[in-house]
């Protein structure tokens, strides 16, 4: 018979092994507001975070690594995606398609796209008759793009309670398994995933930022997000 302490050590080792098996390697491209919100949240869920930065040795990137904790690391964008299961494109919306192409072969990886295909030139508008979600899927055709986290401010990502109730995160994408993996991350953060259909529907959720910008120009400054309410 095993002494009680040995059994305890064996069960801790088993739990650690099980958690390691579930841990994903998540490459977050960018080190700004959204990267700084999602990185620490995903690390707290037990995932391994590697940031892809144009300058991984910058002081603010080092501060982000300390804030993220765990075994978080930073390297170049193209190195960060090597061996990653999931990639988050926390980059300026107008550059998302080019940055995706520059990352190389992303076949089989899940790409989380929180960006918006939005321009402030003249009146705020979507660029072209498409969305960043669709452009990114076209740039990485063998990856599984899931549009997520673009319909709320980064502050509500880390503190959903600050908005006074549950916060829903619409997920648009063509692959059900990828959406369900992203839904797990969303739920783990205390947010509510909502499947809103194929990646083509990214254009509708990206358009919300255009409405916000017009309202803001008309004097109404506010943050926004979706919230499910029960039907009657
Ligand atoms: N801010 C929000 O609350 C919010 C909420 C939802 C969605 N979004 C969307 O999420 C995306 C990221 O937003 P953010 O607020 O995190 O932006 P941000 O603070 O400006 O960060 C963007 C990051 O992209 C990287 N980057 C790579 N190439 C770049 C370039 N040529 N110029 C500038 N930065 C470059 C930078 O990281 P390195 O310098 O380390 O390379 C930078 O930290 C945007 O598309 C935005 O529309 C934002």
Describe the structure.
By secondary structure, this protein is an alpha/beta fold. It has a single domain, classed as 3-Layer(aba) Sandwich (Rossmann fold), CATH 3.40.50.720. Helices cover 41% and strands 16% of the residues. It has helices at residues 4-22, 33-44, 59-68, 77-80, 96-102, 132-139, 154-158, 176-188, 202-217, and strands at residues 25-29, 48-52, 73-75, 86-89, 110-113, 118-119, 125-126, 144-147, 168-171, 192-195. A six-stranded parallel beta sheet has the order 3-2-1-4-5-8, sandwiched between helices. A two-stranded antiparallel ribbon has the order 6-7. A two-stranded parallel ribbon has the order 9-10. α2 links the parallel β1 and β2. Residues 10-18 have low confidence and may be disordered. NADP nicotinamide-adenine-dinucleotide phosphate (NAP) is lined by residues 30-35, 53-54, 61, 90-93, 95, 114-116, 149-150, 153-154.
Strands, helices and their partners?
Layout: H1 4-22, E1 25-29, H2 33-44, E2 48-52, H3 59-68, E3 73-75, H4 77-80, E4 86-89, H5 96-102, E5 110-113, E6 118-119, E7 125-126, H6 132-139, E8 144-147, H7 154-158, E9 168-171, H8 176-188, E10 192-195, H9 202-217
Parallel strand pairs: 1-2, 1-4, 2-3, 4-5, 5-8, 9-10
Antiparallel strand pairs: 6-7
Helix pairs in contact: 5-6
Question: Keyphrases for this structure?
Answer:
232 residues, alpha/beta, Rossmann fold, 6-stranded parallel beta sheet, two-stranded antiparallel sheet, 10 strands, 41% helix, binds NADP nicotinamide-adenine-dinucleotide phosphate
